[in-house]
Fold these 2 entries.
Entry 1:
Amino acid sequence: MNRIDQLFRNKPQRILNIYCTAGFPALNDTVSVVEALQQSGADMVELGMPFSDPLADGPVIQDSSTRAIANGMRISVLFDQLKGFRDRVSLPVILMGYMNPVLQFGVENFCKKCAEVGIDGLILPDLPMDEYEHEYKPLFEQYGLHLIFLVTPETSEARIRKIDSLSKGFVYAVSSSSTTGKDKVMADQQVYFARLKAMELKNPVLIGFGIRDRGTFETACTNSNGAIIGSAFVKAIENSTNLQHDIQSFVKGII
Amino acid sequence: MDIAVNTSQSRYHVNEKGYYGQFGGAYIPEMLYPNVEELRQQYLQIMSDPGFQQEFEQLLKDYVGRPSPLYFAKRLSEKYKAKIYLKREDLNHTGAHKVNNTIGQILLAKRLGKKRIIAETGAGQHGVATATVCALMDLECIVYMGSVDIQRQAPNVARMKMLGATVVPATSGSKTLKDATNEAIRDWINNPVDTHYIIGSVVGPHPYPDMVARFQSVISEEIKQQLLEKTGSEDPDYVIACVGGGSNAAGAFFHFTDRGNVKLVAVEAAGKGVNSGYSAATSQLGRLGIIHASKTLLMQTDDGQIVEPHSISAGLDYPGVGPLHAHLYETGRAQFLNATDDESLAAAYELSLLEGIIPALESAHALAKLKELPLQPDNVVVVCLSGRGDKDLETYIKHLK
Ligand SMILES: Cc1ncc(COP(=O)(O)O)c(C=O)c1O
């Protein structure tokens, strides 16, 4: 069974999913960050494959991507780093990234490598639902990879249902229409989260974008199965001299 | 003067899925879906509405000054031993072809009920053309511009500000057109309801490449009529245009793509030379990839990071090319040439001295290739003079020997 599905079966509520750009803060920190997150009590990790032009990201994740690329991170390096990491890491790991580097790597080869190292799912924000359905779905399924789609407050109910039916693992509810790292007012979004909850989707829902501390995490959890933290975590470790310690205290501050 | 709205059977036009051959599509994050989908569903319908067409044509005539002249360049023709005509987009209000598209899109934005307009700009011509129509229609205007381009196109920055626009510097990456486009897209993601994004070229997610090409198609519509009057035939032997994203070329080629006897020549910016590492000649240096939500030819590293291009001309300094042009290149329907910074400077001086016309640096790239075409004395050649050189004076003065 896919580790994401296993996780939601064992722990349906208060899932904490943390995003970090691979190869950041230093090139070889990738696996140490994942291990530290697991030890600190995070439930799931999203590793960003850095891209030169990340359209859906705000300044914090843009900067971490630029730095990771300058450090020498690329998809082939990431797979090398992840070789054997499953000996030490049991939590679900998702790769997040933009389509162009994946296309250049070769989509089938990419899926194959993901399966080899033990990746559970993918978030590819600029892969449209139609392209996925008609071009890539069988391939992703063959390699046991869950593709996680985003929905926003502007997504129509019909489209949310379509996305839910195509998704596996969970649905990623963007808390407001924004790039990553924007703090829009959570209270205004409660109506939207409640609407999502009332739809009783087949997939669990995790809320992301703008979750940054205990308060926003708690609010997100009242109407969903948990939340995703990205920019706030990246910021917390960007100048870290003691990753283990700083990651521990960041996660403690949330849960 | 008609906007082309009939969905054509041409293999060079977009198909119902938003592709030109294997190029195009809409690789957008979900946050952009409602806006792009609204446009996709409505653009053809709005553009074919008689009220829309009338307003568009009236503004092109009385405000922009269309039709733009098709000028027989006698001394240039003598030099290159062919009949050379210049399509004078430089004489449009605001000084370039860009305004054809911004007039169209601002009317569309009004019909979609949008209150806030955003745009990216490289040379500043599209920014000025957007700021202009926003002033005209009393809409808020925010223009993203790379901080490098803000330096090298200072007169246009001043014009945008005088027209009431807010100019926001893009400081990431190469700090040029690509990065300004990233910032505009991010703005649109953050303002999903009240904002329309006026893209300045035939790039971006479907339906932008097709919509912009249709607004610019007035260029070739007029060329046909003007040539018929002047030469007795609608068809030239050659149409030559520079290509950044490719909107002036798309407009100049539009009505000729299915006329096999008309040779289409697209000229990209070679920068310091195609293989110098400082170039923007996408068809020569690019591979299939995705930039700004469009699958097209793209300059990139082997692991798929977008490469920072170089051109002396801010309007051509872009690592991708519109999907229509990628298709014209792949099918061989258009010939793709490229001109270096130096060749283009020389061509700009040549046109100034021979014809008394100072061209934009972008347009000078197209002129620079006249010397390479196997022209015959009775060949009719149309060069799209996409803009005027006022904005480039500082660069020209710097290179005046
Ligand atoms: C005068 C002029 N010509 C050409 C271009 C290039 O754009 P496109 O390839 O879309 O025509 C620009 C862009 O700024 C321009 O200002």
Entry 2:
Amino acid sequence: MTTLNELRAAVPAQGWLGEALERVAGDPGAIGRLFPAAGRRVGRDALADVPGWSADEAARVQLLAALPADRVAAEAEGLYRYGDAAEKRAVLKALPLLPIADEGVPLLQDAIRTNDTRLVAAALGPYARHLDDAAWRQAVLKCVFMGLPLSSVDSLDERADAELATMLRGLVEERQAAGRDMAPDALALLDRLKGL
Amino acid sequence: MRIFDPHIHMTSRTTDDYERMAAAGITAIVEPAFWLGQPRTSVGSFTDYFDSLVGWEPFRASQFGVRHHATIALNPKEANDPRCREVLDLLPRYLEKDGVVAVGEVGYDSMTPEEDEVFAAQLALAVEHELPALVHTPHRDKARGTERTLAVVAESGIEPGHVVVDHLNEVTVGLVRDSGCWLAFSIYPDTKMSPPRMVNILREYGLERMLVNSAADWGRSDPLLTRTTADAMLAAGFSEDDVDRVLWRNPVDFYGQSGRLDLSDVEKEATFAGNSILRGGS
Ligand SMILES: [Zn+2]
């Protein structure tokens, strides 16, 4: 799993970000205006050293991590609630790196309900270990249904079970009946689950 | 031909429209927040709407290669409803979003004291957030409404070059031109403005600070009328460069003043397709 230190190394706390982190630590409410501005300030390039992460996401995670611990859950909820798609995605990706227990689960559930593939994918990172099995299986099935690569699902092989295999087989049957293809990564997963 | 529709309400349009627009060359759009036809009765229905303007709608547009930006405001009609006024307190959150390139639509509907207050407050927000403003002119009592609009704009201290005044016609074009504000025309079947009338206005007043939009929404409207107008310009003897100026470079210059317009995806595609030339200035 990506760590906070890797993100800090990739987007160092200098200039705008350095000042923003200090402000947030002293005045947690300031994050409401700083969080949306992060992309314009630090850019949105993909980070070569941290695959799957962009500069704005790394900055936003650091902003959340700079909050006093007792404010993190509430601010994350508000930033997600009023966030655009990129902000929501950053909050979802930050969840496993923040000092919170399962308070972020309603945000995952919201993201999984959407039809925005970027949000569904971001909801299935390491924090998805807090989802119960039924919700997690439905989310994985939705990924396959939406054509998302299963590589975005954290701990897929550890968690995939016989029930998920049954659900995937049902989808394969429907697709075959309709003369449509099933994604190769889903078929490969089914193959790995054969013994179950 | 590349076309930027600077005012279109895609929330009210179907996915087929996105497909047809992309095929017609309309690859960049701005969707202003406005009235939905059905009155809202609480702040929550505004925030859900704003969320879709900065979340779902840009995603939907991107599926068709169309770049979507938005403007955010409390519209004049609902400024008169006390149940909606509280949304003013939430606007600053949305005015910081990457995809928000102006405050709008603001302006007058029935020219009430409530509208005065909300209009002035939102022009102040535009100044504070360093954003341009999209100002709608009333459909009834338009000439006097436009005069009063320009007076409020002048009083607010916002730079005229940061303001576009929309839904203009032959009667109001001169007033706005003299104010230094940008001029926008909504090409709407039968009512606001037609392609041939638009061509005549461009002939008479020139291309500077001129914007052409479809303002397509839930009413009888057509998202391809920007393209129809471009074709009418060519047929009337305007050059391809003139069309590109009015229907691409002008909206890019106006909304570009926000510092948040990001057309990198569509400009790359236009270059690859080889059907448009990326020009710097005019
Ligand atoms: Zn409109």
